[in-house]
Design a protein that fits this description.
single chain; alpha/beta; seven-stranded mixed sheet; two-stranded antiparallel ribbon; 3 helices; 31% strand; disordered N terminus
Length: 202
């Protein structure tokens, strides 16, 4: 069972924990609940920790690479409120997450059979949509630090819930005199040039 398509732009950590708990227990009457998350990498460390915090003791998990907080793919198996749950994450970026959730685009998640431990199995091989045995499914939830209407993917409106705050800081490289920004929107390339003359670096 999966929950309805949802996108979640990033407020307090406790809210994300509560939101995931609600989503994970949505299909409590079913034998196995699945929830698949994608989207922004900026909040993945908090999301990973929130998932672990709502799962009952004894849950198992695994992740790609050597860092749990920055893993691009992860899987968590256990129970939430007594209900069996498998939660998977495959982080692809904020706007791409909005696209895949709103348009139900299948992406690669770790297979259910991925080796997991209670201490967290690191170094799991990342999967793609062409990897044999990968779970290729449309994600249920997309974390985003942009609202859907700020992206080109507005055809299928999503429910937006604020669950966290991420601070961003604008910086300029010392000595930079000109910045060229190229933007590709729906296959149409546009470019703009912004002068940094008069900006004080330091």
């Amino acid at each position: 069972t999966t929950i309805p398509n949802t996108t979640i732009p990033m407020r307090a950590f406790s809210i994300i924990l509560a939101a995931i708990a609600i989503f994970a227990s949505t299909a409590a009457s079913q034998a196995q609940t699945y929830m698949r998350l994608t989207g922004s990498t900026a909040f993945r460390a908090n999301t990973h920790n929130a998932i672990r915090n709502i799962m009952a003791a004894g849950h198992t998990y695994a992740y790609t690479g050597s860092s749990f907080s920055s893993a691009n793919q992860s899987i968590f198996t256990g129970t939430v409120g007594g209900n069996p749950v498998i939660i998977k994450c495959s982080w692809s970026g904020s706007v791409d997450g909005t696209n895949t959730v709103s348009n139900s685009v299948p992406i690669a998640f770790l297979a259910d059979s991925t080796t997991q431990t209670t201490g967290g199995q690191s170094g799991v091989a990342a999967v793609t949509t062409s990897t044999p045995g990968a779970d290729v499914s449309a994600p249920d939830v997309g974390m985003a630090d942009t609202f859907q209407n700020a992206t080109p993917f507005n055809t299928n409106p999503l429910t937006e819930i604020k669950v966290g705050v991420i601070g961003f800081k604008w910086l300029v490289n010392r000595g930079l005199t000109q910045l060229t920004v190229a933007v590709d929107t729906n296959g149409t390339s546009t470019a703009s040039v912004a002068s940094t003359v008069g900006l004080v670096a330091g």
